[in-house]
Design brief:
This protein is 22% helix and 26% strand. With 283 residues, it is of the alpha+beta class. The longest helix is centred in the C-terminal third of the chain and has 15 residues. Bound molecules: succinic acid.
């Protein structure tokens, strides 16, 4: 069966049809997938009954994989290329370390010196209702800013932190996180290394702009995040088991909504493709 692509929303995303990732994929099939990935920012593969090894092998076709040294508590002990995004409690009954993973608008690994090229998230156990993820197109976010705003943010750097939402971080965990991942300054406008297009690079884990106070920075951070996540730039994904969603972290941002009942299991596994070095340490 030939590969075909179906748009997922006006702004971004395409569903890839006619591909079985458990079987071989020719270079020409991979080239079509890669081209559409660059054009649409997100690809969805439904009904992929694949093993962990096959998930890792397919991901490797896009580039070198991160072994998640920046997130040691969340990676699988036997497969460091797999980041567990799970609310399944630990063996001792304590909540999972990744229960709240992704519940702020962000681009993966922006708080490191090698932000991610892309991520492949595999749905394994999905709540009967909700557990959705939203994605937004950061090319559109940049393109639709006024010329004045574009001029103002060109050359600006923002401090990205590895902070997570709400109740999960004790003071001790927050200190551990800060030591492991000290704040990193990243350009607010980045040029995509493969398409040459400019994209906005901001998110809810940004604390302030370099050389500005948090109070001075906050209104602009809030404005840019609100602008970037306008509904017309967004695709909302409703997960099914055996979905694989691949996204381009260089021109999209995403958020896990956490919109499901406490007690329902949500378990997904992610590979993270390394991008090109970007940013610098900023204490
Ligand atoms: C992530 O940010 O990688 C996780 C997204 C999700 O759980 O939906």
């Amino acid at each position: 069966m030939a590969i075909s692509f179906r748009p997922l929303s006006y702004a971004l995303g395409a569903e890839v049809q006619g591909v079985d990732l458990a079987g071989p994929l020719s270079n020409s099939e991979f080239d079509q997938i890669h081209r559409t990935f660059l054009e649409r920012g997100i690809l969805l593969f439904r009904d992929q009954k694949i093993s962990r090894e096959q998930h890792i092998a397919f991901s490797r076709r896009f580039g070198e994989l991160d072994t998640h040294d920046a997130l040691p508590r969340d990676r699988d002990p036997d497969y460091p290329e797999l980041l567990l995004v799970t609310n399944i409690p630990k063996a001792n009954g304590a909540p999972s370390d990744s229960k709240y993973t992704g519940q702020l608008w962000h681009s993966d690994m922006s708080f490191t010196l090698v932000p991610s090229l892309g991520s492949l998230l595999r749905g394994i156990k999905i709540p009967p209702v909700g557990g959705d993820t939203m994605f937004t197109n950061m090319y559109m976010a940049y393109d639709t800013l006024s010329d004045g705003m574009k001029k103002m943010i060109e050359g600006l750097h923002a401090i990205h932190t590895g902070s997570r939402k709400i109740v999960d971080l004790s003071a001790e965990r927050a200190a551990e996180q800060k030591k492991l991942n000290p704040p990193i300054a990243q350009p607010v406008v980045r040029v995509h290394p493969e398409t040459g297009r400019k994209a906005l690079y901001i998110g809810e884990k940004v604390s302030c702009f370099v050389d500005m106070t948090e109070a001075e920075s906050r209104p602009l951070i809030d404005y840019l995040v609100r602008h970037a996540t306008r509904p017309q730039f967004v695709y909302r994904h409703q997960w099914r088991p055996d979905d694989i969603v691949l996204w381009d972290n260089r021109c999209t941002m995403h958020i896990a909504l956490g919109d499901y009942a406490e007690g329902e299991i949500r378990h997904l596994e992610r590979t993270t493709i390394k991008g090109t070095p970007s940013g610098y340490y900023q204490q």
